[in-house]
Write a structure and sequence with these properties.
Aspartate Aminotransferase, domain 2, 14 helices
Length: 384
């Protein structure tokens, strides 16, 4: 193994949201960042850029644009026009910007639940109407979560103007199949909606049988309605460098988006640019090894869940996040709080995703740290 995914790092050496939110004896498996060192290529690129001691306003380079275009072409067969790229300080700010820029005051903004919590706050924070449709729960224990088109159709009203879509899906880990995306595209066109597709976890498909298909790559008509949000931050563990992009192929849609960004969005992060280009240019061997580590960690997690009373999990196809159903585990109204208090393990509360009784567990950590947390949970959850 040429890269070190084994040695735990002391993340409390510097202030950390993940590690400093809870007491020092709590194992944090909540927020979506990993505990692995970033790829050596990224670290080298940052060191080289820091060595030039001027950190003024920077301009994205042609090489940065090309790195995104090349990555998209090589991995997804999607030809991204260079003039469609808009560099951003992050995906979450872009969700809110899209709502402000692309919809009318009071318009409906629809999404599916469970969903990454910021999705649920976009409408309220931008003066729009929040509309939600549930995904279909697994039909059998361990089966896949499914897109419920009837529920989504029922949630759409004449006021609806924008769909917030998560692909691959956080928190369930679903990689949406082509036929599901085609059906979604038909619905979007029929209701004349715009779509913001958060594809932040596209490069973290852990299921070898699954394939990520960028939503906007399906056809030109759909692409003209789409804002695709993308970043290397989750894949290459660079979230703290606050750097992302939007791909908007329609010139008028792009002009509305960029026009609204002026004064609301800061200039792009000079170090984020260096890290991003290095990740997409040189990070593929590291990513492939990471995916193997995540699959092994997921196997370990599944072996523990199988021994837990009243707990079920659909194996995620992508992300390093597992969505656990604990409604029958006898852990009270908030399984997250019970596990925190009784097991010293911090997970994300499903209530924040719109589904109480569930928890989200981040297994993107070293084997020894994951084993420690799961063993502590065994004491409370193990059958018999």
């Amino acid at each position: 193994m040429p890269f070190d995914f084994i040695t735990p790092l002391d993340r409390r050496q510097y202030p950390s949201q993940k590690w400093d939110r809870y007491a020092s004896d709590v194992m944090p498996l909540w927020i979506a960042d990993m505990d692995f060192s970033a790829p050596p290529a990224v670290t080298r690129a940052l060191a080289e850029r820091v060595a030039h001691p001027v950190y003024g306003y920077a301009k994205p380079s042609e090489g940065l644009d090309d790195s995104l275009c090349d990555w998209s072409r090589e991995h997804y067969g999607w030809e991204v026009p260079r003039d469609s790229i808009v560099w951003l300080p992050g995906v979450v700010p872009a969700l809110h910007l899209a709502s402000l820029a692309l919809t009318s005051p009071g318009a409906g903004v629809v999404t599916t639940t469970p969903i990454y919590p910021p999705f649920l706050k976009v409408a309220q924070k931008t003066g729009r109407l929040a509309q939600m449709a549930p995904l279909a729960e697994p039909e059998t224990q361990g089966g896949p979560w499914r897109l419920d088109l009837e529920a989504l159709e029922a949630a759409i009203t004449p006021e609806t103007e924008l769909l917030l879509w998560c692909h691959p899906h956080n928190p369930t880990g679903r990689v949406w199949r082509e036929e599901e995306l085609e059906a979604l595209a038909e619905l979007v066109e029929r209701h004349d909606l715009l779509v913001v597709s958060d594809e932040l976890h596209a490069d973290l498909v852990v299921d070898p049988t699954a394939r990520h298909i960028p939503l906007a790559s399906l056809n030109e008509r759909l692409a003209a309605r789409c804002v695709t949000l993308w970043a290397p931050s989750k894949t290459f563990n660079t979230a703290g460098l606050t750097f992302a992009c939007a791909v908007i192929t329609d010139p008028k849609l792009r002009a509305r988006f960029t026009g609204a960004a002026n004064g609301l969005m800061p200039d792009t992060n000079v170090l984020g640019m260096a890290a991003t280009e290095a990740a997409w240019r040189e990070g593929e061997p590291w990513r492939q090894e990471l995916l193997g580590v995540l699959r092994d960690n997921l196997d370990l997690l599944e072996s523990h869940v199988a021994r837990w009373d009243g707990v079920s999990m659909s194996r995620p196809q992508a992300t390093y996040l597992a969505w656990l159903d604990m409604r029958k585990a006898g852990l009270g109204e908030s399984p997250q709080q019970t596990l925190l208090e009784e097991c010293d393990v911090a997970l994300s509360d499903g209530a924040g995703f719109g589904w109480p009784g569930f928890v989200r567990l981040n297994y993107g950590t070293t084997r020894v740290q994951l084993e420690k947390a799961l063993q502590q949970m065994d004491e409370r959850l193990q059958k018999g």
